[in-house]
Amino acid sequence: MQHSNTSSASGQNQTMRNYYRFQSRIYDLTRWTFLFGRKHIVKQFPMQAEEEVHILEIGCGTGFNLRNMASRYPKAHFTAFDVSPDMIRLTQKNTRAFSERIKLIEAPYDPENAADIAPADLVLFSYSLTMINPQWSALIELAVKNLKPGAYIAVVDFHDAAFPWFKKHMGNNHVRMDGHLLPFLEKWSLPVVKSVKKAYFGIWEYMLFIGKKPTS
Ligand SMILES: C[S@@+](CC[C@H](N)C(=O)[O-])C[C@H]1O[C@@H](n2cnc3c(N)ncnc32)[C@H](O)[C@@H]1O
Q1: Does the predicted model carry a pTM greater than 0.85?
Q2: How far is the CA of 109 from the centre of ligand 1 (A)?
Q3: Amino acid 7: pLDDT
Q4: What domains, with CATH codes, occur in the chain?
């Protein structure tokens, strides 16, 4: 199956920049019809609203989650990565009201670019990991390293699909849908929230996961 037209991290980064050059223009108009669970995962975060936490988002897109999280957590500050200049430009515009609390990094999330990140209380991957092929597992491990002990990794993303034609269609849009994320996330963190839900009567499934980094 085709997941991406590349097989290296640098190739994946370029594929994303190219893909979102056009998709960024229609992203907010179209994605609410299929990127389910994004508001729900934020509602499940284990922190209290008044906590002064540091939240990291990997692949922030147009800033949909940052805006939501910044409203729900008025004392939190945020660091967000995105590899696509077109997407991050939209994040900047869409999160202007919260700009003092949000640091945007236009770069791929990788060990070099993440070297100076302050330890986080929570890292969010929202519909980014299934597009990060082949390096998705290395980036989960990196995210766990960027967390304080006892902090959280939150993921909302596609899980799996019953129909090969649908998987192929998603593969053509650089999304890998093989149920591969959950087992790996459970290897690296202790599940606090874990659910798999059906979309459009079962054409595909999406998942919500929040795991706690072990303290030792
Ligand atoms: C489907 S969008 C999700 C955007 C946003 N999180 C949301 O839920 O609407 C995936 C985003 O991940 C970004 N992305 C993909 N690979 C990345 C990488 N290696 N490092 C940082 N961002 C990446 C893409 O540029 C894109 O903006």
Answers
A1: yes
A2: 10
A3: 73
A4: 9-212 (3.40.50.150)
